[in-house]
Amino acid sequence: MKLYADHPVRAFVQIASDVLVLAWVYVWVRAALSLRETVLALDRPGELLEDTGRGFTEHMAGAAEQARRVPVAGEALAAPFTGMSGTGESLASAGDSFRESVASLALTLPLLTVSLPLLLVAATWLPARVRWVRQAGATRRLRGLAPEARSRLLALRALASVAPSRLVGVHEDPAGAWHADDRRAVDALAGLELRRLGLRGF
């Protein structure tokens, strides 16, 4: 598998673009992780609320138990403490719900933050990079063919991929020259294809 062109300028551009993409991805991944830490820091109030509610519930339940031990009026004395115990349970439930919301945001927001830049890379840089690697690999595999056959295949690819203005610069009828097996035109078209990919001749 060939990753970079033979011509120095084209290879430099490819390496630079790869480095920039890697840096872009790294920056956004770090930003997503930093955002996650920031959101998780919001979990502390929910934890305190939950702990306070549970502690309050335990204390009120203990007070109600002590009140029930009072002869005759024990149940009446315990009733207010039992009611306040429910308030503590509500606080604990609210704290738990808050913590669940924070955990959900700590997962969702970083994923959204990093997904959009990665999708941009996948939609622009990656297809072009993969296409070049495949075309360069296919071109290298032509080395096993006879020179004439290799030139004709490269020339045919040039007819499909090189800009018409450059094709006309080789021959006024490049397709006709290819069909007529005009050796000079075919070799020139093959050279255009190699230059398009930034590859040296065989």
TrEMBL record:
Bilayer-crossing regions: 12-29, 102-126
Keywords, comma-separated and alphabetical: Membrane, Transmembrane, Transmembrane helix
Name of protein: Transmembrane protein
Highest taxon above the source species: Bacteria
